[in-house]
Design a protein that fits this description.
The chain is α+β, with helices and mostly antiparallel strands. It has three domains: 3-75 and 83-107 and 247-324 and 463-518, 3-Layer(bba) Sandwich (FAD/NAD(P)-binding domain), CATH 3.50.50; 132-241, no CATH class; 327-457. It contains 17 helices and 21 strands. The protein has helices spanning 3-10, 33-44, 89-96, 131-142, 144-169, 182-189, 196-203, 207-212, 232-239, 252-263, 306-314, 319-322, 356-363, 408-425, 431-434, 443-448, 492-507; strands spanning 25-29, 48-52, 65-68, 75-78, 85-86, 108-110, 115-118, 124-127, 243-246, 267-269, 274-280, 283-289, 294-296, 299-302, 329-337, 347-350, 373-376, 391-399, 435-441, 474-475, 479-481. The strands form five sheets. It has a seven-stranded mixed beta sheet. It has a six-stranded mixed beta sheet with strand order 10-2-1-14-21-20, with helices on one face. Strands 5-9-6 form a three-stranded antiparallel beta sheet, covered by helices on one side. Helix 4 (131-142) runs antiparallel to helix 5 and helix 5 packs antiparallel against helix 6 (182-189).
Length: 519
């Protein structure tokens, strides 16, 4: 019998596996949101924690790009990673674990509307957190029948959220048998395992609202025609739980988390690259850094992208990782500009005519012929992110990942021109001439930053790569993974949860614990 099978058979019924042996000193590799979440909880439980980060600042994908204005009037401060912040109680939970109040460290302001969507027929539809306000918006733009359908849809996604969170997202899973709970039957009964697009269409008949409440499947790495309806819960997090923005930018979140962790004894070392994990059999005994330091430890928590961590730090890639298929990537343009646009909101989605076709193109490894794009204008909520009178734009075009047919060394410059032409055609007149500074990230750049196949949204959430079928977060005796490559998955809420799940692999779980976010 395998060692893993012995561990599974020997565990207490209903109890998740934990690391073996002592756990007094934990080394966390990577100060991304998941690594910080784990480090804070471990420190709060009395463990000695050393947090090693190769960059000069915390955050990982939620890092910082700062570019001086050409006239010397100040700097543009860009968030090069996630820009949509939902479920802030998950962040508050991290501070709670240290006995701290999030409000003492972060100033979060609600974003309203959550999104503004622009459609090819010229109509504009705002998304609101308040279901009554959203119902009224849909009634005005799409008619009373569509508004009534939306009210039924809210009831559906609210049930999804209730049934999914405790049993399928908010816990460590060691076996598919762990999913056999009453909520599994409830999810099946309401259609959670049907395809997302047809399920949305059951409630919403207008193509505009169908797009608005199914595009989130792209975060899961799938077309809404292939994704399971359970991923409608992402729309719940966005459109019912609300969207927020930290004063000072999204990077303020990891900055605050790191500062609180240091206050409570976490030894945070920046500009420190880990090159390998030293093991004796299935047990990690130390990590080695690029400057030759060997740091002995009892447990290692790995926050780098899981396939990269396996290959580069552990020196092996199991079949469960080799088999993975990855989400589409994206081309990201960060632009500092002298021009503002009165018709846009903080977050803006510009839909093209094509819908199912663009997913076929992306999943098939081709560039979108009729792109749907995200444009975020953070200075609308916080003007201090740019010099006086200037604006920041975060422009995201979904693209294939590096398994596709695009040679970014050759295509990159021409695609930049395509992005700028598309923006100007979608209502951003004079965008190119008004740009003072810019920063571009292609799928090739994402790969250079440590993301497998250049996919910042990690492994796709197909059925065979979801829940217990996604790479687990406990490997060997005392190596724990955290981040979007492991359970529960992609997105700021999920990686914050993954940090707590990683900590619970070390500490065990208090059966009375319930995250603030699910109360």
């Amino acid at each position: 019998m395998s060692t893993r099978a012995t561990r599974l058979l020997g565990r207490r019924p209903g109890a998740p596996r934990t690391t073996e042996g002592p756990s007094d000193h934990v080394v966390v590799v990577g100060a991304g949101l998941a690594g910080l979440s784990a480090a804070m909880r471990l420190a709060g439980a009395g463990r000695k924690v050393t947090l090693l980060e190769r960059e000069a600042v915390p955050g990982g994908r939620a890092g910082l790009v700062e570019i001086a204005a050409p006239d010397g009037s100040g700097s543009y401060r860009f968030d090069p990673g996630p820009t949509v912040l939902t479920m802030p109680d998950l962040i508050a939970d991290c501070f709670d674990s240290l006995g701290e109040q999030m409000s003492d460290w972060l100033d979060l302001v609600p974003v309203n509307p959550l999104y503004r969507s622009f459609h090819p027929d010229g109509s504009v539809l705002d998304v609101h957190a308040d279901p009554a306000a959203m119902t009224q918006e849909i009634r005005q733009v799409c008619g009373p029948a569509e508004a009534a359908g939306y009210e039924r849809y809210v009831d559906f996604v609210s049930k999804l959220y209730k049934y999914e969170m405790r049993d399928f997202i908010d816990r460590n899973i060691d076996s598919p048998l762990d999913l056999l709970t009453p909520n599994l039957a409830r999810l099946a009964a309401i259609g959670g395992f049907r395809k997302l697009a047809p399920k949305v269409e059951q409630y919403l008949k207008d193509p505009r609202t169908q797009k608005l409440f199914s595009f989130q499947a792209m975060y899961a790495g799938l077309s809404p025609y292939d994704a399971l309806a359970i991923y409608a819960v992402i729309a719940y997090m966005d459109s019912v739980a609300g969207v927020f923005f930290p004063k000072g930018g999204m990077h303020k979140v990891p900055q605050a988390m790191a500062a609180a962790a240091e206050k409570h004894g976490v030894d945070v070392r920046y500009s420190t690259e880990v090159t390998r994990v030293e093991r004796r059999g299935d047990r990690a005994v130390a990590v080695h850094t690029a400057d030759g330091e060997r740091i002995p430890c009892d447990v290692v928590v790995l926050n780098p992208d899981l396939p990269v961590a396996h290959r580069e730090l552990l020196g092996s890639t199991p079949w469960s990782v080799r088999r993975l298929k990855y989400s589409p990537s994206c081309y990201l343009l960060l632009a500092g500009s002298t021009k503002s646009y009165d018709h846009v909101a903080h977050h803006n989605i510009h839909f093209g005519e094509s819908w199912r076709g663009i997913f076929d193109e992306l999943i098939g490894g081709r560039l979108m012929s009729d792109p749907s794009v995200l444009v975020t204008n953070p200075t609308r909520s916080d003007p201090s992110l740019a010099p006086d009178g200037r604006q920041i734009y975060y422009v995201l075009f979904p693209t294939p990942n590096l398994d596709g047919d695009v040679d970014w060394n050759r295509v990159g410059p021409a695609y930049r021109e395509h992005v700028l032409r598309t923006l100007e055609a979608r209502g951003y007149d004079g965008f190119t001439d008004a740009m003072e500074v810019e920063n571009v990230t292609t799928p090739l750049d994402w790969a250079r930053r440590g993301m497998e196949r250049g996919a910042p949204f990690a492994a796709a959430h197909s059925f065979g790569q979801t829940g217990p079928f996604r790479p687990g977060n406990l490997w060997g005796e005392n190596i724990v993974f955290t981040g979007s490559g492991t359970q529960p998955g992609v997105g700021v809420p999920m990686v914050l949860v993954s940090g707590r799940l990683a900590a619970e692999r070390v500490l065990g779980r208090d059966p009375s614990y319930r995250s603030r976010a699910w109360r």
